[in-house]
Design goal:
269 residues; alpha+beta; 15 strands; 5-stranded antiparallel sheet
Amino acid sequence: MIKIKTREEIELMRESALVVSKTLGMLAGEVKPGVTTLYLDKLAEEFIRAEGAIPGFLGMYDFPNTLCMSPNAQVVHGIPNNKPLVEGDIISIDCGALKNGFYGDHAYTFEVGEVVPEVKKLLAVTKQSLYEGIRQFKSGNRVEDVGFAIQNYCEKHGYGVVRELVGHGLGKAMHEDPEMPNYGRRGRGKKFMEGMVVAIEPMINLGTHQINQLKDGWTILTRDGKPSAHFEHDVAIVNDKPELLSTFKYIYDALGIVSSEEDEFRQNF
């Protein structure tokens, strides 16, 4: 059952989302060759707790860490370890935080040093597909309108859209209704309405959409070993339109990136 949020609850959720946004911004300056994902995980846990929040992933479904850290051909749910990042890697960092009784949950795929143009394009297209999907998250539209927009945009570039993993509703639970697939047909699925909050998160592969899972029970890999990208935002429907609760601003500030990509999804209310 979809749980509708009040304006007050949405503002509390914005605070939770911003803890994650600030955590990813802090990590942005630390992602570099020679750094281990376990070190980044420790930094994130300390930062989240210092913000008065609790790591959202740590212990959830027995996950052992604060961050899901998924380099290169890992799609999502990678477990932090002591293997150093190297020049040319990419790494999806997915982070969750619980504050005020609500979850924030979003992700960004970082470049480690200089990345080859083919992979840089994958990141750019995947991130843009996130906004293509968000644009469809408005009152009167349906779940698969979002999925269709993401799928259509990515497949035009020849990329594989992961089917088995989806975005989700968000609130007092990390995973609420509705599921938000990154593929679909227009006009199908549950109808969107004022006060809904979801996490939209395209997971897009350079090659095939097919995936495998490692024996650790968590890590998802592309079946052909080619890189995968992952970006995620928390979004509410406010005044019948999509309103971003999370932001990549802190990441961009750390990396010296100037961007207006989020502007159309900010309202004053």
